[in-house]
Design a protein that fits this description.
It is built from 11 helices and 12 strands. By secondary structure, it is α+β, with helices and mostly antiparallel strands.
């Protein structure tokens, strides 16, 4: 009827997914789906390309194995690998529909992939993008309802070719992230933990409570979504994870984890940085405990543990538009910016 609001179109309609996804037709390259057994070859390609695309981040074999085998990934439909005449890997692509998060209400497909450095400039990247576009639309169309849908990827600011390629496919540079670092030979402040809380090292017994705290803390952060238990446990079991350098604050009255700092160490990233460092993966404080310097106390304790472990720096990434004022918090603790990365997305 005239004057009546029309119901929003479903994501299925907006995604306008093709019925089939064709493999690329690229001279000198043979394409097929990936297998989980090819994780090592894909990791090697990604690391070689990463020396140019993201030199400060080194992907591990275990991370790639998880990406290829995580719940919901169908490699026959969600992956693509290309080989040259000598059966050497030239490129790969992976399209991952994340579990739908009712809190954020956004359907997200992470598009990832890379082209071997010596084969760039031949149109292979464009071929991957065409495949990503078709498969990503199919995955978004599988989500019921009229939710927003995102095709999403991430790039170091130095990866100008990757950024430009995605812009050609109408991806927007939606959100910037700062990489911050701090030398640990500088004085570390002494901020006591709120006496109503108990400081504990992160352990397996606290893992699930910490996951729930993480999901609660980040539920209103841009681009974040709840981490499923299976993905959380895989991440905590990675060789780079350092529970001995990770800490939580527990409310003794409820045994609830109310704050956390979780850390990792990847020694293969030290060469590009020029020094050793520990990486702070997550910092969070539940809303009811904010404004009581809980984060500062945990971070200072963590930095001391880094220093005692022989590390020279602490490093982390932060949303440039953090709603909790995290950039100011880290600046006050002596962190300074050294790099930027960006989230690129195409919205439906």
């Amino acid at each position: 009827m005239d004057g009546m609001d029309q119901a929003p179109k479903s994501l299925r309609d907006r995604a306008a997914a093709p019925a089939t996804v064709d493999r690329p037709l690229t001279p000198g390259v043979t394409w097929r789906p990936a297998t989980a057994h090819e994780a090592a070859a894909i990791t090697a390609l990604e690391r070689e390309a990463g020396a140019v695309d993201h030199p400060r981040y080194v992907v591990t074999l275990e991370e790639m194995q998880h990406d290829l085998t995580r719940d919901g990934v169908d490699l026959d439909r969600d992956s693509l690998v290309g080989f040259d005449e000598n059966s050497a890997l030239v490129a790969y692509a992976l399209s991952t529909l994340l579990p739908f998060d009712e809190v954020t209400g956004v359907a997200k497909v992470v598009v990832d992939g890379s082209v071997r450095l010596d084969r760039r400039g031949e149109g292979i990247g464009q071929a991957l993008m065409r495949w990503h576009e078709a498969r990503g639309r199919q995955q978004l169309a599988s989500v019921e309802g009229a939710h927003p849908g995102w095709l999403i990827t991430f790039a170091d600011e130095a990866a100008t070719d990757k950024i430009g390629l995605h812009e050609q496919w109408d991806y927007e540079l939606r959100r910037w992230w700062f990489e911050l670092t701090r030398a640990l030979d500088d004085e570390i402040g002494d901020v006591p933990l709120d006496p109503a809380l108990r400081l504990e090292p992160f352990t397996a017994a606290l893992s699930e409570r910490t996951r729930l705290a993480r999901n609660d803390v980040f539920r209103d952060h841009w681009g974040s979504q709840a981490t499923p238990a299976a993905d959380w446990e895989v991440a905590r079991a990675l060789p780079t994870a350092r529970p001995d350098l990770s800490f939580v604050a527990v409310d003794p009255a409820t045994d609830e984890v109310v704050a956390f700092v979780l850390s990792s160490v990847n020694e293969e990233e030290w060469a590009a940085a020029g020094h050793s460092f520990g990486y702070i993966d997550y910092v969070g404080v539940r809303r009811g405990w904010r404004g009581r310097k809980v984060a500062q106390a945990l971070l200072n304790h963590t930095m001391r543990s880094f220093r005692d472990a022989g590390l020279s720096h602490a490093t982390l990434d932060v949303d440039s538009e953090s709603p909790t004022g995290a950039t100011g918090l880290y600046a006050g603790l002596g962190f300074t910016p050294i790099n930027r990365s960006v989230t690129l997305l195409k919205e439906f």
